[in-house]
Automatic annotation (TrEMBL):
Residues 1-17 form the signal peptide. It comes from Hyphodiscus hymeniophilus. This is 1,3-beta-glucanosyltransferase. It comes from the Eukaryota. Keywords: Glycoprotein, GPI-anchor, Lipoprotein, Membrane, Signal, Transferase.
Length: 455
C-alpha cells in the first residue's frame, strides 16, 4: 500500500490430526454462504471452477485516518453498491480492529458475491524490516492470531496476507526468514485451531533484483514452511503500454512453472491517464497459466492520488478512473476452462545468497515459546487498534526451528476464542457406536430368511 508500510504475516496449515471416535468435534459457524476458495496447483478454485481475483484495494482514510472499514456497517453498505457496479469479486483490506464485530459487513459482502483478502498486521503490530528479530515476538503473534480468530470462520475470507512489502530493497532481504516464520506460524495456528485451510501468503514489493528470489523463498523448504500463494505489487504497466513494453511478458516467463497461485496485490500505474489496458492482458490466456488476477490500487481517493472514487461522509463521487476500470472489466471475460493452470504445483528450490539476497541459510527462527502455547489454548482477545504495540515487547525467538516443527500435531476441540457471533458454535460429541439396533436387525433378517425357506 502506497505510503502505508505495514509488515504482516499469516498462515494456514494443511495437516490436520484425525479425532478419535470419542473426541469432541466442533461445528465451526459461518456467517456467509459463498463457497470457500481453495488452492489447487498454482491456481485458486471456487468449487470445481477456476477463480480469478478481480478486485480493488480498500482502506478509506488510508494511513492518515486509520480505521476498520469492515467494522463500519454504513460505510460498507455505501461502498458495496459501488463494488457491484464495478463488477468485482474481491477487496483487499490492510488494517482491521480485531476486537470489533465484522458480521454485518462480511455478510453484505457475501451477499454481493465479494471475498476478502486481509492483511493481518497493523502499524503498531508488525515486523520491523530494519531489526526484525526483536519484533518477531509473542505479543506480535498474539495480535495476528486474534485477527485470524476474528475472520477465519467467514467463508468469504479468501486469504490472509502475512506481510506487505517488508522487503523493499536488497538491504532488507535479511528480514525474509522472519516473514516466512510468521507465515509458517499463522498456517500452524489455523490448522491447530481447527479452522478450514484459509490460504496464507505474502504481498511483496516489485523489486526487480529480488522479486523472483522472494517468490522462490516463500515456496521452498518443508511443506509446513511453504506459503499457500505469492503476490506482489506491480506498477510497471503505465498506459499507454503493452504486454511486451511493460515487461509483463518477461515476468510471465520468469514465473512459468512456479508451484503456487500468483496474483497482483496492487496494480494500476497513475503516471499517465489510467485506462487499465492491463486488464485485458491479466485475464488473457497469455497470463492465466501463471497469474490468478489482481487488485487495483485503490478504491478511495487519498493523498497518493490513486482513487477510483471520492468519499465525503455518506456520499460517493465516481472519478474518471472508476469508469475506465468498469469499462475494462466489462470488456474482459475470464478464459473458458481452467486457464491453463499447473495442476501439480510443487516446491521451489531455495535461492542462494548473493549480492541482492542476504539470506545464507534455509533455517527459520523457532516460534517464541509463549506464542507456541496459543496453538492449543487460543490467542484470546486482541488489542484492536489502540494497543501499546509489539515491536520491542520481548518474548522473542530463542533458537532455530527444525524442519517440520510448524506442522499441526493436534487440533483443538473447542472454539478458538470468544468474540463475534461467527466464532461460537455448539460442540457435537461423536458417541460410541450403539450395536443393539444392528443386532436386532440381523435377527429380523435371519428370521425372515428362515420363514421364506419354509414356504
Amino acid at each position: 500500500m502506497k505510503n502505508f508500510a505495514i509488515a504482516a504475516l499469516a498462515a494456514a496449515s494443511g495437516v490436520l490430526a484425525t479425532p478419535t471416535p470419542t473426541e469432541e468435534l466442533v461445528a465451526r459457524a459461518s456467517s456467509s454462504s459463498l463457497t470457500a476458495i481453495t488452492v489447487k496447483g498454482n491456481a485458486f478454485f471456487q468449487g470445481e471452477n477456476r477463480f480469478y481475483i478481480r478486485g480493488v484495494d480498500y482502506q478509506p482514510g488510508g494511513s492518515s485516518d486509520l480505521a476498520d472499514p469492515i467494522a463500519d456497517e454504513a460505510g460498507c453498505t455505501r461502498d458495496i453498491a459501488e463494488f457491484k457496479k464495478l463488477g468485482i469479486n474481491t477487496v483487499r483490506v490492510y488494517t482491521v480492529d480485531n476486537t470489533a464485530s465484522h458480521d454485518a459487513c462480511m455478510a453484505a459482502l457475501s451477499a454481493a458475491g465479494i471475498y476478502l483478502v486481509l492483511d493481518v498486521n497493523t502499524p503498531l503490530y508488525s515486523l520491523n524490516r530494519a531489526t526484525p528479530a526483536p519484533s518477531y515476538n509473542a505479543v506480535y503473534l498474539q495480535n495476528i492470531f486474534a485477527t485470524i480468530d476474528a475472520f477465519a470462520n467467514y467463508t468469504n475470507t479468501l486469504a490472509f496476507f502475512s506481510g506487505n512489502e517488508v522487503i523493499n530493497d536488497d538491504t532488507t532481504t535479511s528480514a525474509a526468514p522472519y516473514v516466512k516464520a510468521v507465515t509458517r506460524d499463522m498456517r500452524q495456528y489455523i490448522g491447530s485451531r481447527g479452522y478450514r485451510q484459509v490460504p496464507v501468503g505474502y504481498s511483496a514489493a516489485d523489486v526487480d533484483s529480488n522479486r523472483l528470489e522472494m517468490a522462490e523463498y516463500m515456496n521452498c523448504g518443508s511443506d509446513d514452511e511453504r506459503s499457500d500463494f505469492f503476490a506482489f505489487n506491480d506498477y510497471s504497466w503505465c498506459d499507454p503500454s503493452s504486454f511486451q513494453l511493460s515487461g509483463w511478458d518477461q515476468k510471465v516467463k520468469n514465473f512459468t512453472g512456479y508451484g503456487l497461485p500468483l496474483f497482483l496485490s496492487e496494480y494500476g500505474c497513475n503516471t499517465n491517464t489510467r485506462k487499465f489496458e492491463e486488464v485485458a492482458a491479466l485475464y488473457n490466456t497469455e497470463m492465466t497459466s501463471v497469474y490468478s488476477g489482481g487488485l487495483v490500487y485503490e478504491y478511495s481517493q487519498e493523498s497518493s492520488n490513486y482513487g477510483l472514487v471520492t468519499i465525503s461522509g455518506s456520499s460517493v463521487t465516481e472519478r474518471p478512473d472508476f469508469s475506465a476500470l468498469q469499462s475494462a472489466f466489462k470488456a474482459t471475460a475470464n478464459p473458458t476452462g481452467d486457464g491453463g493452470f499447473n495442476s501439480t504445483g510443487g516446491a521451489s528450490g531455495c535461492p542462494v545468497k548473493s549480492a541482492n539476497w542476504n539470506v545464507s541459510s534455509d533455517a527459520l527462527p523457532a516460534i517464541p515459546s509463549a506464542a507456541a502455547a496459543y496453538m492449543k489454548k487460543g490467542a484470546g482477545s486482541g488489542p484492536g487498534l489502540s494497543g501499546k504495540g509489539s515491536q520491542n515487547s520481548g518474548g522473542t525467538s530463542t533458537g532455530t526451528a527444525t524442519a517440520g516443527s510448524g506442522s499441526v500435531s493436534a487440533v483443538a476441540t473447542g472454539s478458538s476464542s470468544s468474540g463475534t457471533s461467527s466464532k461460537s458454535a455448539a460442540p457435537l460429541t461423536v458417541q460410541p457406536l450403539n450395536k443393539a439396533p444392528m443386532i436386532i436387525g440381523f435377527i429380523v433378517v435371519g428370521f425372515s430368511f428362515l420363514g421364506a425357506t419354509l414356504l
